[in-house]
Amino acid sequence: MASKVERFIAAPQPAPEEVPYHNMRQAREMLGPQYTYMSGSLVPEADMSFTVRHIEKVPPGFKSEDEPHRHEVSQLYVIIGELTLELVLEDERHEVSGPTAVFIPAGTMHTIHPLSGSGYLAVVTRAGKCELLGPP
Q1: Is residue 4 domain-resident?
Q2: Residue 6 lies in a domain
Q3: Containing domain of residue 37, as a range?
């Protein structure tokens, strides 16, 4: 007989091939694969998604092609290791290095671009309408 909670346990899966405003192909080819450890597609009752990308080394001169965008839900980015990212929230640019965490409130225009180093980039996205909204 199957356990009542067995359906809440999921194996990580490759992240979606395409996400609006994100160049997933470029990131996968230049930085390495991203895995979804939890989402509503893996466990229907999940009220969040959790993805992780292991970046062995940001290539010199790497420039992400992601576009500024916003979500209708908040996000948490966790930078683990010796990884440095460029973070743009609204019109403010910041360089952040791991270990650190960045909270992005719902509706905040943002982009995150790896600049240098190696480590892990983990992202928690709250459940709800997670439609990507382009520039206002």
Answers
A1: no
A2: no
A3: 13-133
Whole-model pTM? 0.86
Please give the structure tokens belonging to residue 77.
Answer: 């980015």
pLDDT of residue 2: 67
Which string of b and e fits 25-64 if b means at least 16 CB within 10 Å? eebeebbeebebbbbeebeeeeeebbbbbbbeebeeebeb
The CA-atom distances, in angstroms, between 61 and each of 57, 64, 85, 115, 125 are 12, 10, 13, 8, 29
Instruction: Dump pLDDT digits (tens) for 31-71.
Output: 889 999 999 999 999 999 999 999 999 999 888 877 888 88
Per-residue pLDDT of 80-116, as tens digits, reads: 999 999 999 998 999 999 999 999 999 899 999 999 9
**CATH code, domain carrying 60:** 2.60.120.10
The answer to whether position 7 is within a domain reads no
Cβ within 8 Å of residue 25, ≥6 positions away: 17
The answer to whether residue 69 sits within a structural domain is yes
